[in-house]
Amino acid sequence: MILRRLSLIGDMTHSPVAIIQAVRIYYSLGKLPGKAQMLIEPDESSPQNTQVLEGWNTPGDYGWEVIRVTPKQSEVVKIQSRR
């Protein structure tokens, strides 16, 4: 298991808002991702259908699947993605 730090987009001078624990996603050798991609799915249990980060891919390498997020504070961590 690998611990990764998540920072907000933009100003990177603040401390991390959460720690993400992730495990590798293994693909067949002929099916490695060709481009970087965030794996985002809607939270169907939420009335707002909030988008949730489930993992990410790195080009030419295996991906990562999020298994746990530990916020720095007890409040909910809100990350907005730019599309």
Overview of this protein structure:
This protein is mainly β. A hairpin with an 8-residue loop joins strand 3 and strand 4 (51-57). It has strands at residues 2-6, 18-25, 37-42, 51-57, 63-71. The chain contains no helices and 5 strands. The radius of gyration is 14 Å and the shape is globular. Residues 1-8 have low confidence and may be disordered. It has a 5-stranded antiparallel sheet with strand order 1-2-5-4-3, with no helix packed on it.
What distinguishing features does this structure have?
disordered N terminus, 42% strand, 0% helix, globular, mainly beta, 83 residues, single chain
Q: What does the secondary structure layout of this molecule look like, with pairings?
A:
Blueprint: E1 2-6, E2 18-25, E3 37-42, E4 51-57, E5 63-71
Antiparallel strand pairs: 1-2, 2-5, 3-4, 4-5
The share of residues in extended strands comes to: 35-45%
User: What sort of overall outline do the alpha carbons produce when their principal axes are compared?
Assistant: globular
* Strand ordering within the main sheet: 1-2-5-4-3
Strands, total number: 5
Largest sheet: 5 strands, antiparallel
Secondary-structure element order, N to C: EEEEE
Average pLDDT: 75
- Count of helical stretches: 0
- Provide the gyration radius in Å: 14 Å
Sum this structure up briefly:
With 83 residues, the protein is mainly β. Helices cover 0% and strands 42% of the residues.
